Amino acid sequence: MMPSIDVALKSIVAAYSVIFGGIFIFVWLMFGRQKRLEKKLEQIREDMRDAGKNQSNQV
Amino acid sequence: MKIRMLAILSLVLIPISLYFAFIYAPTENTMGHLQRIFYFHVPHAILSYVSALLLGLGSLMYLIKGDLKWDRLAYCSAELGILFTVTTLLSGIIWSHPAWGTWWEFDARPTLELMLGLLFVGYHMLRAYLPERESRARLSTVFGFLAALDVPINYFATYIWEQHHPRVIGPGGDLDPDMGIALLVSMITSGIIYAYLLAQRIEIAKVEEEVEYFEQVVQA
């Protein structure tokens, strides 16, 4: 039995929202993670630089 | 640069593929407009298989070569596998309610797709409990092989078992040529989106590994 146009359109909108919404959320989370990691990496590098300076001052 | 090109190409191709899915492709006789879900449901299902096969390949190559870049490919594709199985299952569920009159039918294909999704999740859960990089890569290959094994069974499920799931492409499928073109366009689009997501995810994985390495150095 062919579903009514109203039901079909609602289902199409829902399905395509899930598909593109899923991709959008994935990309958003991915870039969020990348930003956090770059900040963390920069912090670690700074910490290591500071630790190196302290060591040379002690010597 | 290549990654940016893939992103731009994806953004250009999305409206083109939507044009083919909604305007170019004719309306199907039995399901009417509802069938248009198929133009993105099928490519996403195929890409969930691709994820499983890449996961299996990455796991196998890691065991043979011992190079962690294969493990990186494996876990990045497993992550994409979760996304693509979820979108496949949800778009299938949304289609099946008006088409079959039920949200979920325990047919072989959707059940095996659900299993594939759970294998991807299980793979990441296992990795989360293993702190040591090498053992994490080695032990998680088991899930990689299971996921890759699920693919042929999943694909041939409509031929092995009698079930409701439509058989549209492959032997026994009867797809209108214009619908075939629309499907091909959406497959190319989804493939490029997939390539972009995988390439970008691998780049992030490299930064993750660098952070992990530096943290270990600082702790030591």
How far is the first residue's CA from the last residue's CA of chain A? Answer: 85 Å
Report the average pLDDT across residues of chain A: 87
Share in helix of chain B? over 70%
Mean pLDDT of chain B: 90
CATH structural architecture of chain B? Up-down Bundle
User: What is the terminal separation of chain B in angstroms?
Assistant: 36 Å
Question: Overview of this structure, please?
Answer:
The complex is a heterodimer of chains A (59) and B (220). Helices cover 92% and strands 0% of the residues of chain A. Chain A has one helix at residues 5-58. Chain A is rod-shaped. By secondary structure, chain B is an all-alpha fold. Chain B has a single domain (2-26, 33-219), classed as Four Helix Bundle (Hemerythrin (Met), subunit A) (Up-down Bundle), CATH 1.20.120. The model of chain B has no long low-confidence stretch (mean pLDDT 90). At the A-B interface, helix 1 of A face helix 2, helix 3 and helix 7 of B.
Quick overview:
The complex is a heterodimer of chains A (59) and B (220). With 59 residues, chain A is an all-alpha fold.
Give the secondary structure arrangement, pairings included.
The complex is a heterodimer of chains A (59) and B (220).
Chain A: H1 5-58
Chain B: H1 2-24, H2 38-65, H3 68-100, H4 108-128, H5 133-139, H6 141-160, H7 177-219
Helix pairs in contact in B: 1-7, 2-3, 2-6, 2-7, 3-4, 3-7, 4-6
Which key phrases capture this entry?
heterodimer, A: about 60 residues, mainly alpha, rod-shaped, B: about 220 residues, Four Helix Bundle (Hemerythrin (Met), subunit A), 7 helices, about 0% strand
